[in-house]
């Protein structure tokens, strides 16, 4: 093995037993800072987008293209099966023949005239002119009821009894189910009017039976029109005559009860009486309130006058009527003034004073008599007011009693009035119908007229024409259309159940990550990987060390002929390498992990071919097979795997002894195989020794590529990605399950491992 390490790297490796903890902390802090600064804004925005997928029309066409064989097979199979059933059933169709006849149905004259009279009696403002015109022009027979009568067992049984003589198996149910009746109408929409013509048809596989049945139906219906209608008229007249006495007696009784109620309560209309009594009650209440106020004032006046009279103060009482007693009051005041003046000159028992006192006493006597007269007058007025108040109270009580009784009286009055109105209307209707029925009974009744005899349509040769219409072509077309739709549904169902990625666009939409590369599927490469053989070196194959040999799968490098057919493959890996280099604008990517969600997605082949591509442009590339569970790199390169990464971590072996340079590959390509299998790969990959080795790899090589185990269910890839510039996820088209990719990305998101993008592998076309 060639010694590829310089002295500086050897010195670094000799110091591998340094304090790993301090060195790893400084290394991790520096790497995380550089990663955050180097992530492009576009990539950061894509990671923060929601995971909802938008509906894409192109996806529909892609599904149709992918599932076209299944859809075509289902459509053809269903079309053939459905078509065979339709053709078979069409051959078993029995022809059916149909015949008919037409009857001119005369309306029931009495009922028609009564209905017309009722509508016209509603007044000129009821109904439109069109409706009134229809009343005059069309029959008012209830044709729906008439049709049910004509199809009833009572009317059909006599005809069936006659038919059973020739057709013993004929029964009412099957016969009536094949009889159709309808009324001919003219006009369309709002102008549609019914005629008096009734069409009766019958269908059966036997044309002769059709004609026989129709002839018997004609006889039965014409006989019904003549006899049964006359019977119904006579029964109607008899019923009306029997009912009229009872109706008249009921009307007379109700009129007598109504008159008695009016006389008892002295009212003509309860509604008007209610309003009148209520208004009268309000007037009495207002009068009584005023009278009570006057009575209270009069009682107060009377009490004051009695008090003044007892206190011998007649002058105050007389002063209430100053005009009537002005002279007497003036004389008393004049004598009192004169006595006051004389009392200063004479003694009280002197003759002048005695004379004046006698005169004053006489005047006071007159004043007392006048005061008593005034008090009696006030007392009389008081008694009169009390009598009026009592009268108003009695009147108010009587009115209230009438108001309380009025609802019951009004209800009795309304009930009697309603019953009388109903009885009167019934009596009038019965009388009108009796007269109309008498007129119809007196007339010569004309039966229905057969205007179109029974017949079965025939062709020019006289053969009956069948009404059975075969729609085989139309049914076949429907089957083809339905089969095609069902086939499309089956195709989409298969697409939904087969939850894998088909195109890079689907991967990009589902992961919200940039697609760094699209690796095409090469049939020649697949054959070459199945039969490994010793191939020429890459530079010999391509004629230049700058052209790497394509390599996907468990095989060796390709021959010149294979490379010629795999030119698209070469360009795909060149584009992938270029996209990785240009992914970060501020910080170049030196180390990254190649991983996949599931085994078999081609991650090892992508890692190997990408390492060839980077080495071909002059970069020192180290390919590390970190898949300590199922390594594949040494198999694809045909190199030994006696010692490798696991040995470098667990022992103090020199890296110069375990890093290999394949003899038939580019001299810039170095490979570190996985080494001996370990029982605990997680422990080795997460050790401090592994972190120190990864730092040394990055310091010595331009590009370090780590091949990781599958991500689903394993933490190896997350541990490696956290100590590199990021992880590239390989997705096998038409193979990798969507849910597996989602779970793998969720695990990386939880661990905080940066994902640089995705590479779609094995795309066809």
Structure description:
- Helices cover 61% and strands 10% of the residues.
- It is an alpha/beta fold and 765 residues long.
- Strand 10 (727-732), helix 29 (738-751) and strand 11 form a beta-alpha-beta unit.
- 25% of the residues are buried.
Category from helices, strands and their pairing:
alpha/beta
Low-confidence segments, ≥5 residues, pLDDT <50?
6-29, 36-54, 132-138, 524-561
Radius of gyration: 62 Å
Order of the strands making up the biggest sheet: 5-11-10-6-9-7-8
- Quick one: how many beta strands? 11
The mean pLDDT is: 77
- Individual helix count: 29
Report the end-to-end length measured between terminal Cα atoms: 42 Å
Report helical residue fraction. Answer: 55-70%
- Report the principal-axis shape: flat
Strand percentage = 5-15%
Largest sheet at a glance?
7 strands, parallel
Produce a short descriptive summary:
The chain has 765 residues and is of the alpha/beta class.
């Amino acid at each position: 093995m060639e010694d590829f390490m310089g002295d500086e790297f050897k010195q670094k490796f000799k110091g591998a037993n340094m304090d790993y903890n301090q060195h790893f902390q400084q290394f991790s802090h520096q790497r995380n800072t550089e990663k955050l600064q180097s992530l492009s804004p576009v990539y950061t925005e894509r990671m923060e987008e929601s995971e909802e997928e938008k509906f894409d029309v192109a996806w529909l066409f892609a599904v149709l293209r992918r599932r076209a064989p299944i859809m075509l097979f289902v459509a053809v199979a269903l079309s053939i099966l459905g078509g065979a059933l339709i053709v078979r059933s069409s051959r078993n169709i029995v022809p059916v023949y149909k015949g008919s006849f037409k009857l001119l149905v005369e309306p029931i004259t009495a009922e028609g005239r009564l209905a017309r009279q009722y509508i016209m009696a509603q007044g000129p403002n009821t109904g439109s002119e069109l409706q009134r015109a229809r009343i005059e022009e069309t029959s008012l027979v209830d044709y729906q009821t008439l049709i049910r009568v004509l199809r009833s067992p009572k009317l059909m049984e006599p005809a069936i009894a006659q038919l059973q003589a020739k057709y013993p198996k004929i029964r009412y149910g099957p016969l009536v189910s094949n009889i159709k009746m309808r009324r001919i109408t003219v006009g369309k929409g709002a102008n549609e009017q019914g005629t008096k013509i009734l069409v009766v048809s019958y269908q059966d596989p036997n044309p002769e039976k059709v004609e026989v049945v129709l002839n018997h139906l004609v006889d039965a219906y014409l006989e019904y029109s003549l006899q049964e209608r006359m019977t119904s008229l006579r029964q109607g007249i008899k019923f009306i005559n029997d009912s009229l006495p009872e109706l008249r007696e009921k009307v007379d009784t109700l009129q007598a009860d109504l008159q008695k109620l009016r006389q008892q309560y002295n009212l003509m209309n309860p509604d008007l009486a209610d309003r009148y009594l209520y208004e009268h009650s309000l007037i009495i209440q207002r009068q009584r309130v005023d009278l009570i106020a006057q009575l209270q004032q009069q009682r107060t006046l009377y009490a004051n006058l009695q008090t003044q009279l007892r206190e011998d103060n007649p002058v105050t009482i007389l002063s209430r009527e100053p005009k009537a007693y002005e002279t007497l009051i003036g004389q008393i005041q004049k004598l009192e003034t004169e006595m006051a003046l004389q009392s200063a000159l004479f003694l009280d028992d002197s003759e002048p004073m005695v004379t004046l006192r006698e005169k004053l006493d006489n005047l006071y006597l007159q004043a007392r008599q006048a005061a008593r007269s005034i008090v009696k007058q006030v007392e009389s007025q008081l008694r009169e007011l009390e009598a009026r108040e009592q009268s108003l109270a009695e009147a108010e009580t009587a009115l209230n009693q009438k108001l309380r009784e009025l609802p019951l009286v009004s209800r009795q009055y309304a009930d009697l009035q309603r019953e009388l109105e109903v009885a009167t209307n019934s009596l009038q209707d019965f009388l009108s119908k009796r007269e109309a029925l008498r007129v119809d009974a007196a007339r010569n009744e004309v039966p229905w007229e057969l205007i179109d005899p029974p017949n079965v349509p025939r062709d020019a040769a006289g053969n009956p024409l069948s009404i059975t219409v075969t729609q085989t072509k139309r049914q076949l077309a429907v089957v083809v259309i339905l089969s095609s739709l069902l086939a499309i549904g089956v195709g989409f169902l298969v697409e939904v159940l087969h939850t894998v990625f088909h195109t890079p666009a689907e991967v990009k939409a589902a992961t919200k990550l940039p697609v760094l590369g699209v690796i095409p599927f090469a049939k020649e490469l697949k054959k070459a990987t199945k039969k490994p053989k010793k191939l020429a070196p890459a530079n010999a194959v391509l004629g230049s060390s700058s052209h790497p040999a394509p390599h996907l799968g468990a095989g060796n490098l390709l021959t010149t002929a294979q490379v010629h057919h795999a030119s698209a493959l070469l360009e795909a890996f060149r584009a992938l390498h270029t996209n990785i280099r240009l992914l970060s604008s501020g910080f170049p990517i030196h180390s990254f992990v190649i991983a996949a969600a599931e085994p078999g997605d081609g991650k090892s082949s992508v890692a190997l071919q990408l390492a060839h591509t980077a080495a071909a442009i002059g970069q020192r590339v180290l390919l590390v097979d970190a898949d300590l569970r199922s390594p594949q790199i040494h198999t694809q390169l045909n190199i030994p795997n006696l010692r490798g990464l696991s040995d470098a971590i667990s022992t103090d072996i020199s890296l110069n002894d375990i890093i290999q340079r394949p003899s038939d590959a580019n001299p810039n390509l170095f490979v570190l195989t996985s080494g001996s299998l370990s029982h605990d790969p997680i422990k080795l990959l997460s050790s401090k020794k592994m972190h120190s080795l990864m730092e040394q790899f990055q310091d010595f090589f331009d590009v370090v590529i780590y091949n990781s185990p599958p991500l689903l269910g394993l933490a190896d890839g997350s541990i490696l990605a956290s100590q590199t510039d990021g992880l590239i996820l390989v997705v096998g088209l038409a193979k990798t399950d969507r849910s597996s990719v989602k779970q793998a990305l969720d695990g990386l998101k939880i661990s905080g491992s940066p994902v640089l993008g995705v590479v779609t592998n094995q795309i066809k076309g």
